[in-house]
C-alpha cells in the first residue's frame, strides 16, 4: 500500500471528563485541533496531490474532519471499541461498580469483552475490511487520512508495525498528533506531526 495518515479525533468533552465511549462533541481544544489540521496536512502531503478522509460515524471524528476540503468517507467499522454496559462511565466508576470485570480486563486486555460490547479481538475482526482497503490502496499521488479513535488506531497501527496481540491494547496513540505510515517491503516508515492546541 501507499502512505496513509492517521490521527485520533480532537479532544472530546468525554476525554475531558475521563468517560469512555459515548458520542460526545469536541472540547474547545479539540476544535482548535480541527481548525489546524488542514494546514498541517497541506504542509506534509508531499507528492500526494489527492487526499481522501476516512472518519467513523461518531460526531467527534466528523467534527475533527469538518475543516478538511477533501472528499470524505464514513466507516461504521471505524467506530470506537463498543464498551457495552460500561459505556459513558469513567474507569473509576467501572472499578467501583464492576470490580471483577475491571481486574479481568487488566489481566487480559486483548480478550476481555465488555458485556454487551466488544473486545479488542472483536475489534480486530471488525477492522478487517478497512485494513484490506488500505492494503489494496496503490494509487499514486493519492493519500488517505483516517480520523479515528484510540482503540481502533491501536489495532491499525499494530497491524502495520507488526506488534503482538498482547501489546496491541497498550500502544500509545496520543491526541493531537498526526502519524504518517509508509509501508515498505519490510516494515514501515513512520513520521509524526504534533499540533499545539
Ligand atoms: O478514552 C477514550 C477511548 O477512546 C474510549 O472511548 C475507549 O473505551 C478507550 O479509549 C479505549 O482505551 P482502553 O482500551 O485503554 O480503555
How are the SSEs ordered, and which strands pair?
Elements: E1 4-8, H1 13-17, H2 28-44, E2 50-55, H3 59-64, E3 72-74, H4 91-97, H5 99-107, H6 120-126, H7 128-136, E4 142-148, H8 150-160, E5 177-183, E6 188-194
Helix pairs in contact: 4-5
The structure holds 6-O-phosphono-beta-D-fructofuranose.
6-O-phosphono-beta-D-fructofuranose binds at residues 20-21, 80-81, 83, 149-151, 169.
What does it look like?
This is fructose-2,6-bisphosphate 2-phosphatase. Strand 2, helix 3 (59-64) and strand 3 form a beta-alpha-beta unit. Helix 4 (91-97) packs across helix 5. The chain has 197 residues and is an alpha/beta fold. The chain is built from 8 helices and 6 strands, in the order E-H-H-E-H-E-H-H-H-H-E-H-E-E. The model has no long low-confidence stretch (mean pLDDT 96). The chain has helices at 13-17, 28-44, 59-64, 91-97, 99-107, 120-126, 128-136, 150-160, and strands at residues 4-8, 50-55, 72-74, 142-148, 177-183, 188-194. The structure holds 6-O-phosphono-beta-D-fructofuranose. Residues 20-21, 80-81, 83, 149-151, 169 line the site of 6-O-phosphono-beta-D-fructofuranose.
Amino acid at each position: 500500500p501507499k502512505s496513509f495518515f492517521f490521527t485520533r479525533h480532537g479532544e472530546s468533552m468525554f476525554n475531558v471528563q475521563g468517560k469512555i465511549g459515548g458520542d460526545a462533541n469536541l472540547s474547545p481544544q479539540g476544535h482548535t485541533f480541527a481548525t489546524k489540521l488542514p494546514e498541517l496536512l497541506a504542509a506534509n502531503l508531499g507528492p500526494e496531490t489527492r487526499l481522501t478522509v476516512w472518519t467513523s460515524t461518531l460526531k467527534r471524528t466528523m467534527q475533527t474532519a469538518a475543516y478538511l476540503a477533501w472528499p470524505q468517507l464514513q466507516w461504521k467499522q471505524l467506530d470506537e471499541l463498543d464498551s457495552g454496559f460500561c459505556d459513558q462511565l469513567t474507569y473509576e466508576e467501572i472499578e467501583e461498580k464492576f470490580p471483577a470485570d475491571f481486574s479481568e480486563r487488566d489481566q487480559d486486555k486483548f480478550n476481555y469483552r465488555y458485556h454487551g460490547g466488544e473486545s479488542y479481538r472483536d475489534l480486530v475482526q471488525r477492522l478487517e475490511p478497512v485494513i484490506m482497503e488500505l492494503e489494496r490502496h496503490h494509487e499514486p499521488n493519492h493519500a488517505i487520512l483516517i480520523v479515528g479513535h484510540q482503540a481502533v488506531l491501536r489495532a491499525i497501527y499494530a497491524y502495520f508495525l507488526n506488534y503482538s496481540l498482547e501489546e496491541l491494547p497498550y500502544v500509545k496513540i496520543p491526541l493531537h498528533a498526526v502519524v504518517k505510515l509508509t509501508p515498505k517491503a519490510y516494515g514501515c516508515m513512520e513520521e509524526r506531526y504534533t499540533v499545539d492546541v
